Backbone:
């Protein structure tokens, strides 16, 4: 039997190779798990059960032709990566019926490796949020406590892996959208160096910050998945040739590794439980032979405000194409094109997306550009320089991934600023374009705590090695119970609609996220 | 000429108002569609006349997740234009997003360039009348064209009054180069000359056919007036999206007295965008400055800044063909042509090449120039042909010129031969033989004709013999007429004098 709650991709691959299990059986185990718990977790916007079953059978049958390191392994994909023939919604009503005509490069690379796609996971609408409550269709629940959020915006992918609804998953990270949900759901999540993974087919939120990356159950799996999606893509001008191939990590010691702990990250707002787990992990690093020192990233306090100028500014242009003319939702019965635009966008976008479009539009407006966008770009340069300076002294930077553990559904939904602070430790790596990874480092009040490593550009192998050694030493094996369901149901007031879980590209129901 | 208190006189720089003299200050923004095989940011083919929406892809339809990639050939073509305009090409340039909603712009932003364009600080020398003028070039930048809108169901084809609009995305994403001048152009006629000669230059560079009907060249003009001799700049108005040289000149000529009239009446010119109606010959406001777009330019994050390798730029520079202005100077020098003749022949590259092919046959360059500018150019205009096309090859025209130079045919008979060369698609010598168009120098053949003319005009004979020697010209003319212009004038003169004096 396949234990979807614990199985890693590495183990699953061995089972396949040894003939212990077929791809069809493996895939079915996840589809069964989805069927059993999805109505409580809402990790998926669309489960492509029939396709997955058919394709896994095909992989089994044509094993000779369809072999490869990932062949037959099932995966979940965040629903902001376009997939030809499978609706891609970005959890937005404005794309509720959008059927892509091509496939994102990162996903295409996995398909070419004969990976089996289980479905498309939930997210904050257009990846804007830190709780997956901003989905236009459903609120994803944290499997560790269904009354809490899974983090976001890749909350669906993180929850799917944590709940055993996926072996592993792809997410995207603009300001922490892979690492923060990974931390809150007790899984591994990595944002690679900007440019390492093609963004072609990733529906853009903030183009200069977005990166696709893995959410997995182990650091080894993270490296395994990453190595199959990296590479220069002629369709993405910002993608680069990786200076070195991604290696599968094997380090058990951290001898001589210099780890910097930025004092600014620990200055305020870190929950005591999170701080305690983090400090225990730091002590472990020392035991493994590493040397942890306090360092300073002096412009950290400006990173968050700069991010909330740059990201919305880019988003305001990126989301302007959703106008109802060529695809997606179109408001009915408008008398002229301007009215059609206004109503389509007014009805199609949720409140957080509208908020960011307005902020971004304002920040780019004549007379305000220099004061906001221009200044934010200068801050970005300073944040980047902070890291360059620090990496002259240390090999990696470490911090808690999120200042808090998972918070209750609804707790921050009414206060955007409180929500934005969730990303204070993750945003600087996006502004600087650096690789960053989160691993679980224990529980606080029964909820996972994430530990983040940030490395210099293209130091993925160093980050993965260090994380692997620490992961091994930590020996985190706890799994979520999918408890707290009653609390979840009482909080959502029963108004929440289930996400569609069939193959049919039906329009998702009305969302309830406020 | 339109109303107003002032009148404009063609190329004359001075606009005479009621209270004094004014001068025009004109600047242009010229858009040129490049003839690349594929679009600016995707690999869809650039085509003309194909069924609508057959050359589209996720990138040029702005599907979610699609990303632009710069067309290297377009960069090369744009660089050719920039270098031909003597611009500086900085080591890097940056694409920006220009944001506005319109159904012909699927991303709702145009990828263009803003404060770090491809090239800056150039100049273009052009002829206007007998004057060589210099216009400084502010910048040359790259961008993508919008899709084509077809407004259906209305009478005018404009959006107002139409029932619905159709979008053809085939054109969307076509590479465009924008050339922005300084306001250095002194008159509507000079603006027209500038554009015509700029178009010839771009064609010469081989980067665009600059087909006017297909809108491959379009421009915006901005215009203001100031007291003659002043160096201040007045408030300008803008004429958008024109693609006819004639209408441009007309529009500017109508706008100048309007502005002068306003200013002389003590008013102020509104900064606004105008539409020129060729039917009425007047301009009407489209939108004012207050309604102007805020395009919210910001650097395009999907593209990295373009690094321009100086060695590559020099390669492009070295590959430039001889430019029209230099060619005019060379033709004047090398072939002994007047400036005016050299400009006519050496300005358009195709005509210059034709001419040089004629001269290469070893005929007299001046005579060849007269025939190229005269009969040949008239034939091209009448037939709507580009130089080098049609049945008059350089070899045939050279053969005809040689017949004239050698005295085999007279000039007027040669014009007949030329016409028949087109009609009969034959060699000039064959036509001369077939139609008996050769020069008649034989006194035995001309004698009877002379005798006849003398006999038929007794009063003129009287006058001549009475001392009015200039009447000889009349007799020569009569003989020429009788021989279809084929008679050798020297022989005719000799025979006439003998007959009249004798």
Residues:
């Amino acid at each position: 039997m396949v234990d979807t709650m614990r199985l890693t991709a590495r183990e699953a691959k061995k089972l396949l190779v040894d003939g212990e299990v077929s791809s069809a059986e493996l895939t079915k185990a996840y589809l069964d798990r989805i069927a059993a718990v999805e109505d409580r977790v809402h990790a998926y916007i669309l489960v492509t059960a029939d396709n997955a079953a058919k394709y896994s059978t095909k992989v089994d049958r044509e094993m000779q032709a369809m072999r490869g390191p990932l062949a037959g392994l099932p995966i979940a994909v965040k629903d902001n990566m376009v997939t030809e023939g499978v609706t891609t919604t970005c959890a937005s009503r404005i794309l509720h019926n959008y059927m892509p005509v091509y496939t994102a490069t990162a996903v295409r690379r996995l398909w070419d490796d004969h990976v089996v796609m289980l479905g498309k996971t939930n997210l904050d609408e257009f990846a804007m949020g830190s709780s997956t409550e901003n989905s236009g269709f459903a609120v994803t629940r944290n499997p560790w406590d269904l009354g809490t959020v899974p983090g976001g915006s890749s909350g669906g992918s993180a929850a799917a892996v944590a709940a055993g609804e996926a072996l592993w998953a792809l997410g995207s990270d603009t300001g922490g959208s892979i690492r923060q949900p990974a931390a809150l759901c007790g899984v591994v999540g990595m944002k690679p160096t900007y440019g390492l993974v093609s963004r072609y087919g990733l529906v853009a939120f903030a183009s200069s910050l977005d990166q696709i990356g893995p959410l997995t159950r182990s650091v080894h799996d993270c490296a395994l998945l990453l190595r199959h999606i990296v590479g220069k893509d002629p369709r993405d001008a910002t993608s680069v040739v990786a200076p070195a191939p991604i290696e599968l990590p094997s380090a058990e010691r951290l001898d001589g590794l210099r780890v910097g702990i930025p004092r600014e990250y620990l200055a305020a707002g870190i929950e005591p439980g999170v701080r305690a787990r983090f400090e225990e992990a730091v002590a472990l690093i020392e035991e493994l032979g590493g040397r942890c020192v306090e360092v300073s990233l002096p412009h950290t306090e400006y990173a968050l405000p700069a991010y909330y100028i740059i990201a919305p500014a880019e988003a305001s242009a990126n989301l302007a194409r959703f106008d109802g003319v060529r695809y997606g939702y179109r408001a009915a019965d408008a008398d002229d094109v301007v009215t059609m635009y206004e109503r389509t966008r007014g009805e199609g976008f949720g409140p957080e997306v509208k908020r960011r479009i307005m902020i971004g539009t304002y920040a780019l407006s004549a007379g305000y550009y220099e004061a906001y966008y221009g200044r934010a770009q200068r801050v970005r340069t300073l944040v980047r320089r902070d890291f360059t300076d620090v990496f002259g002294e240390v090999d990696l930077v470490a911090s808690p991934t999120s200042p808090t553990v998972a918070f209750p559904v609804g707790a921050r939904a009414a206060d955007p600023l409180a929500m934005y602070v969730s990303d204070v430790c993750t945003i600087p790596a996006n502004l600087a374009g650096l690789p960053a990874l989160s691993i679980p480092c224990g529980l606080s009040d029964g909820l996972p705590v994430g530990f983040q490593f940030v490395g210099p550009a293209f130091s993925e192998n160093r980050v993965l090695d260090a994380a692997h050694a620490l992961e091994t030493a930590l020996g985190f094996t706890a799994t979520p119970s999918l408890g707290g369901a009653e609390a979840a149901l009482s909080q959502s007031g029963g108004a929440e609609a289930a996400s569609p879980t069939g193959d049919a590209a039906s329009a998702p129901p009305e969302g309830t996220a406020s | 000429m339109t109303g107003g208190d002032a009148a404009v006189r063609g190329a004359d720089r001075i606009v005479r108002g009621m209270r004094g003299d004014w001068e025009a200050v004109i600047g242009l923004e010229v858009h040129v569609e490049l003839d690349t095989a594929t679009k600016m940011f995707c690999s869809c083919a650039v085509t003309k006349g194909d069924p609508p929406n057959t050359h589209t892809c996720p990138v040029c339809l702005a599907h979610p997740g699609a990303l632009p990639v710069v067309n290297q050939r377009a960069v090369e073509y744009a660089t050719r234009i920039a270098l031909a305009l003597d611009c500086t090409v900085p080591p890097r340039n940056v694409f920006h997003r220009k944001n506005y909603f319109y159904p012909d712009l699927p991303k709702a932003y145009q990828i263009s360039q803003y404060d770090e364009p491809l090239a800056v600080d150039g100049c273009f020398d052009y002829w206007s009348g007998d004057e060589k003028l210099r216009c400084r070039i502010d910048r040359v930048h790259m961008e993508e064209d919008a899709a084509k809108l077809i407004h259906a169901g209305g009478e005018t084809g404009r959006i107002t009054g139409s029932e619905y609009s159709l979008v053809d995305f085939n054109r969307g994403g076509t590479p465009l180069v924008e050339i922005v001048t300084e306001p250095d152009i002194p008159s509507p006629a000079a603006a027209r000359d500038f554009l015509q000669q700029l178009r010839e230059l771009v064609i010469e560079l081989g980067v665009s056919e600059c087909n006017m009907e297909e809108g491959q060249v379009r421009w915006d003009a901005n215009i203001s007036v100031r007291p003659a001799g002043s160096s201040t700049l007045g408030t300008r108005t803008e004429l958008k999206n024109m693609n006819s040289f004639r209408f441009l000149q007309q529009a500017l000529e109508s706008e100048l007295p309007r502005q002068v009239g306003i200013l002389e009446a003590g008013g102020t010119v509104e900064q606004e965008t105008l539409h020129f109606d060729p039917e009425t010959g007047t301009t009407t406001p489209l939108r004012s400055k207050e309604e102007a777009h805020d395009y919210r330019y910001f650097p395009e994050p999907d593209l990295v800044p373009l690094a321009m390798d100086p060695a590559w730029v020099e390669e492009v520079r070295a590959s430039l063909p001889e430019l029209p202005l230099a060619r005019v100077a060379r033709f004047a020098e090398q072939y002994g042509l007047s400036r005016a003749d050299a400009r006519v022949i050496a300005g358009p590259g195709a005509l210059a090449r034709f001419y040089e092919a004629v001269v290469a046959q070893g005929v007299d360059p001046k005579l060849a120039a007269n025939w190229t500018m005269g009969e040949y150019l008239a034939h091209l205009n009448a037939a709507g042909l580009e130089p080098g096309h049609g049945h008059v090859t350089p070899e045939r025209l050279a053969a005809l010129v040689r017949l004239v130079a050698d005295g085999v045919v007279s000039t007027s008979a040669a014009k007949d031969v030329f016409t028949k060369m087109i009609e009969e698609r034959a060699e000039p010598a064959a036509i001369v033989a077939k139609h008996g168009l050769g020069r008649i120098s034989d006194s035995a053949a001309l004698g009877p004709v002379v005798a006849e003319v003398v006999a038929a005009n007794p009063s003129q004979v009287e006058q001549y013999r009475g001392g009015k020697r200039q009447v000889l010209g009349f007799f020569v003319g009569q003989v020429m007429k009788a021989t279809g212009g084929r008679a050798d004038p020297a022989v005719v003169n000799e025979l006439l004098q003998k007959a009249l004096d004798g």
